[in-house]
Amino acid sequence: RPFACLITKENEIIAEAGNQVAQTHDPTAHAEMVAIRAASQKLGTEHFIGCNFYILAHPCPMCLAAMYYCSPEKVVFITTRDDYSKFYVDDRRYFTLQSFYDEIGKPWQERSMPMVYEGRAAGIEVYKRWQEINKPHQ
């Protein structure tokens, strides 16, 4: 698929990748995600302070969220969804380029992909235990 990503730090290429979804049958193997995984290994951190992303297209919500999570200095993209949608279509059951960004902003109960909340008290115990184990040393 026609997507690519380059991650740099101090003018050095840290990672570069193309979209690998079709080759790997991994729906998360977008160019940005593949490059993030490689850069995380090379840098030894998930914090991309001082790094820049250079990508072919405006990122999808998954890749955009991953970029927010790793906090680069900036993201440079050279085509918009409107630019490339004339030449590339990737419609899925719950995913269309025209609707997916709006879908993320909806409350979970209103999304087109069915989601069911089954609240259980035991679930919060995992987070309480995490907090106990990871209390800051005083």
Search tags:
36% helix; flat; 138 residues; four-stranded mixed sheet; single chain; Cytidine Deaminase, domain 2; alpha+beta
How would you summarize the topology of this molecule?
Layout: E1 4-9, E2 12-18, H1 21-24, H2 31-43, E3 51-55, H3 61-70, E4 74-77, H4 81-84, H5 100-105, H6 121-133
Describe the structure.
- The protein is an alpha+beta fold and 138 residues long.
- The protein contains six helices and four strands; from the N terminus they run ββααβαβααα.
- It has a single domain, classed as Cytidine Deaminase, domain 2, CATH 3.40.140.10.
- It has helices at residues 21-24, 31-43, 61-70, 81-84, 100-105, 121-133, and strands at residues 4-9, 12-18, 51-55, 74-77.
- The chain has a four-stranded mixed beta sheet with strand order 2-1-3-4.
- α3 links the parallel β3 (51-55) and β4.
- The mean pLDDT is 90.
